[in-house]
Amino acid sequence: MRYVLKMFPKAHITIAAATTVVVTAAILMSPSADVEAKRMSYALDLEQGGASEIQSQKSQPTPAASAEPSVNASTAAGPTEVAQEIPDLANVETSQRLDWQTFNIKSGDTLSSLFKKAGFNDGVMLSVIHGEGEADKLQRLYAGETIRFATDNEGELAAIELQRSLLESLKIEKQEGSFKGETNVREPETKPAFAYGTIDGSLYLAAREAGLNDRLTMELAGIFGWDIDFVYDVRKGDQFEVVYEELYLDGEKFNTGRILSARFINRGEDNIALLYTDSKGDSDYYTPDGKSMRKAFLRTPISARVSSAFNLQRRHPVLDVVRPHEGTDYAAPPGTPIKAAGNGRVQFAGWKGGYGRTVVLKHGDNITTLYAHMSRVGKGMKSGTRVKQGETIGYVGSSGMVTGPHLHYEFRVNGSPRNSRTVKLPDAQPIPASEMAQFKKFTEQQVAQFEAFRANYQQLALAPED
Are 308 and 314 in contact (CB under 8 A)? Predict the structure, then answer.
């Protein structure tokens, strides 16, 4: 070995050693293909009802060519993690791995408690909600929503996502030392659908058999409820036809939208309603000739059965004497909300003798409505308060001279009692003359669509089965 070394000059040996050091350092500092920036995965759970923590996981490398996000939903019981690819939150040159924690928000949770579950104190929370853009909207939380927290390699909060619904989310990211929030809303694709039914027992059962969900059934009853009492007026053999929206995301149906048009045949009488949006952007239902389906007053201020009808010769159940029953009684569980029958102002709110807790509303055309025997008066109801039709003004109870919980409802014109179930109610405003041409053009299209659906349905119904 010494002989070999003596064969080379000392200068050559020194140069070779230095070269070895440089090459070794270059090899150690050279990045491998496995440490390139990758897309991150995050957890999303919209199925669970409780706020249960999902353990954070290091995001795994994924193929760089995969550019489209994917969601894998799980229905297993307990905390469930759903991995989804999302774009890098940071700049490509400075991208880093993020750990995500997901919590399902339940009743009683606060923003502070959720931050603590994720490992962050109130100081961090305040820095987020005092950030830029729409970051302050994070303060409004509702049970059933999902919130996710992302931490960077140093354990610092890097991003938050609040999933309000399938369509809406609030995303907050840390940018240059401060947090910035933005609300993202996806627009679903809408497609018209048709349903037909014949009533044999109740509207609810017939609608369910026709494929309508409960929300659409309630909307259908609400559209025609100004003229039809669905507790007493509906008969076996009545029919309905509905054109409504089906909502799609990424080609998959996920919900239903509005009723676009509907027909209800009650006791042989044809009732048609069309959804129309005017030049101001306001939508409502009208008859084909432009009359509003809405009345100035609700026929009934509560969805319940009549326990005692309007009768000016009725014998009082407590006093056992003939005393006019100048209103209609509706039996309902205590606490059931009571709606204002029409727009107006509160004329009286408080205790009114045998009526118990009572609210009296004053409307136009010398009309007043009275709501009695409440368990409690609605919040903010005091003399002079303006109320809107359908607004909750109180809750069913048994205050005053009564034998059980119910609503006593009176409808008076010029101080004289009228039967609220049979009195002719004034209509709401029709289509204005300035929009009638546009409305007629729209109506022709809607009626044509309706008839096309009906013809197709009848053709399918008459087709022989295989």
Answer: yes
Angle at 437 between CA 434 and CA 443, to 5 degrees: 125
Q: What does the H/E/C string look like for 349-391?
A: EEECHHHCEEEEEECCCCEEEEEEEEEEECCCCCCCCEECCCC
Which tokens go with 209? 């058999």
377-387 pLDDT tens trace: 999 999 999 99
The pLDDT tens digits for 277-293 are: 988 888 999 999 999 99
Let me know how long the chain is.
466
Contact (CB, 8 A) for 83 and 26: no
**Number of domains comprising the chain:** 3
Which of the two residues, 441 and 466, has the higher pLDDT score? Answer: 441
Edge-to-edge strands of the sheet including 178-185? 99-104, 146-151, 157-163, 168-175, 178-185, 132-133
Label residue 68 exposed, middle or buried (CB < 10 Å: 0-12, 13-18, 19+): exposed
Strands 406-413 and 168-175: unpaired
> Under 8 Å CB-to-CB from 73, ≥6 apart: which residues?
46, 47, 82
The larger pLDDT score, comparing residue 304 to residue 462, is at 304
Q: Are strands 132-133 and 178-185 parallel, antiparallel or unpaired?
A: parallel
Whether residues 350 and 380 share a domain: the answer is yes
Q: What is the extent of the structural domain holding 396?
A: 305-418
Residue listed under structure tokens 């994917």: 70
For residue 40, which phi and psi values (nearest 5 degrees)?
-105, 155
Is residue 9 assigned to a domain?
no
